[in-house]
Amino acid sequence: MMELVGNWLTGVTAAAILCALANSLMPDGPVRRVGRLACGLAVLAAVLGPVLRLEPMEPEAWLEEYGQVMAVQRQELEQTRAETVGAVIEQSCAAYIADKAAELGAACTAQVTCASAGGEGWLPDRVTVRGTLTTAQRAALSRTIWTELGVPEAHQSFETEEESP
Question: Has this prediction a pTM greater than 0.70?
Answer without folding.
Answer: no
